[in-house]
Amino acid sequence: MLILFAILIILASVILGFIVLVQNPKGGGLSGTFGGVGNQLMGVKQTTDVLEKGTWIFAGVVGILCLLSPIFIPKTGNASKNDELINKAPASGPATPNTTVPLPGTDTGVKK
Fold first, then answer.
1. pTM above the 0.70 mark?
2. What is the pLDDT of residues 20-46, one digit of tens each?
3. 54, 48, 50, 49: which is closest to 16 by C-alpha?
4. How far apart, in whole angstroms, are the C-alpha atoms of residue 50 and residue 61?
5. Cα 3-5-8 angle, rounded to 5 deg
6. How far is CA 84 from CA 7, 75, 79, 81, 92, in A?
């Protein structure tokens, strides 16, 4: 299910990017690209309205999908297996050798 959400988020993001790139920052947008054909079909005002509504819709879809996708992350995954391994490890620190080395200048207990 998480893969489905990832695919939908990527698809909606690509469509959102395309819609944003089609728009002209000065308001001409898609209608100016087709040289008057847009005026005859939908009109300049309606073209920019459709693109703006599409921008908001796909931005909302991406946001909602991003907020809903963590619900479908499995609760028993690799992280919980790693936690079990960590909990099974011994509580003591690293192993230390049983031999001790005397400090220089101290009595070693060996008689000469």
1. no
2. 898 877 655 555 555 555 445 555 567
3. 54
4. 16
5. 110
6. 32, 14, 9, 5, 17
Backbone angles phi, psi at 49, to 5 degrees: -65, -40
Residues 6+ apart with CB under 8 A from 61: 12
CB 65 within 8 A of CB 3: no
Residues 6+ apart with CB under 8 A from 2: 69, 72, 73, 74
Tally the C-alpha atoms within 13 A of residue 75's C-alpha that lie toward its C-beta.
1
pLDDT at 62 over 50: yes
Map tokens 């308001």 to a residue: 27
* Cα–Cα distance for residue pair 81/4, rounded to 1 Å: 25
